[in-house]
Write a structure and sequence with these properties.
about 130 residues, alpha/beta, Cytidine Deaminase, domain 2, globular
Length: about 130
């Protein structure tokens, strides 16, 4: 499994990290999945935490026409305990990001899996093409 971030999604995560470095940022990852790759096209910030209630998730998934492929959270927010992940997060992407002053934005993607309890399986970050100048 790997994750590809569009330029727009990358920009929004960087902007959130820059805009409020001490505030906990989190939200939804929007895009699609093809084979073993998650394509993150956009991000949608949520104030209530990385995982909305089940009812709110269904409403948001309808608004975004089924394009919710995962959730993101800054490392400053406590990582969810494996057993505490909501059922609707199964087989979705969880992206933790951390702004680092020297290394830039550090991303840690994982996929939510289930076997007697929920757990996170690390995923690779697909290489982004170099920008032409």
């Amino acid at each position: 499994m790997d994750v590809y971030l569009s330029e727009e999604a990358w920009q929004h995560l960087r902007a959130q990290a820059l805009e409020s470095p001490r505030r906990r940022a989190c939200g939804l990852l929007l895009g699609h999945r093809r084979g073993g790759r998650f394509f993150v096209e956009r991000v949608y910030p949520c104030l209530s935490g990385p995982f909305p209630s089940a009812r709110k998730y269904r409403v948001l998934d309808g608004i975004f026409e089924g394009k919710i492929i995962g959730f993101y959270s800054s490392a400053r927010r406590a990582r969810p305990a494996a057993g505490k992940l909501p059922p609707f997060s199964y087989n979705k992407l969880f992206l933790e990001f951390d702004p680092h002053p020297e290394k830039g934005l550090i991303l840690r993607p994982a996929v939510v899996e289930y076997s007697d309890s929920f757990y996170l399986v690390p995923a690779d970050l697909a290489a982004r093409p170099k920008r032409r100048r």
